[in-house]
Amino acid sequence: MSRVAYVNGRYQPHAVAAVHIEDRGMQFSDGIYEVVAVVDGHPIDLSGHIARLDRSLTEMRIARPMPSRSLRLVMRELVRRNRLSNGIVYIQVNRGVYRRDHPFPPAHVAPSLVMTVRSGVGPSRTAIENGVPVITMPDRRWARRDIKSVSLLPNVLAKEAAHEAGAWEAWQVDRDGYITEGASTNAWIVSRDGALVTRPLNDDILAGITRQSLLALARADGMTVEERPFTVEEAKAAREAFTSSTTLSALPVVRIDDAVVANGVPGSLTRRLRELYAAHIAGAGREDWLPE
Fold first, then answer.
1. 82-141: per-residue pLDDT in tens?
2. Which domain of life is it from (predicted)?
3. pTM
4. How is domain 4-119 classified at the architecture level of CATH?
5. Which fold has domain 125-282?
6. What is each CA distance from 130 to 55, 122, 126, 162, 267, in whole angstroms?
7. Is residue 159 annotated as part of the catalytic site, yes or no?
């Protein structure tokens, strides 16, 4: 855990950092969050994460706690104080502190801003080299999954179901039998004819920043890319499958429920995407904390 946290304008020891008991994030899950990877002290795809944070705030009608430049400064200082080299910065913005009542509080109530850091997150070398299993289950989340809301109870239950089944992730399935995304990741397959397939952006899935980078890298590398829904049956019969997020890059999936994907080992396209993404975070994806 981080030694220093940031809470509403103050850097505090992580062990005592807290928000008020009537913070709407605690009582109503009335807030949004963002997770930014840090590699060698530099943020990865920070501009994309800040843009998504701003979009979530707009969709939730939560005021921005500070300008983007100030947010970048706080993140940089938090990383410095924690001597973080490789890990993540976690950002959460709640609607603020007010008496418990469902309607929004008055406009003068300021949003709450919390930041913490963690080091050493990501999959193990074994998971990367051997791939991981996933399970499928009905998607029971709310209808605005495009907002990075802290209302994650269905995701937590899905993750626990995966954990209890000995799987890495739960891929969630809509009422028509199509996979939406994982409990905390985007879902991908390589079709039988070699196309890279992932669900298109709409209210059903989160616009993953790593997803965005992987799509751009794949297209630049000449891969055939299809943004379309795919069924559980198609995923089980696919040549390859993988899952992606800020902390995972492209993590190979080698089993879906009881079905082995292809020959049960990470596929060549997934390995290629990992190589491309490694170059991305060592190059264009590695940003400065403050824009020039």
1. 999 999 999 999 999 999 999 999 999 999 999 999 998 899 999 999 999 999 999 999
2. Bacteria
3. 0.95
4. 2-Layer Sandwich (3.30)
5. D-amino Acid Aminotransferase; Chain A, domain 2 (3.20.10)
6. 36, 15, 6, 18, 10
7. no
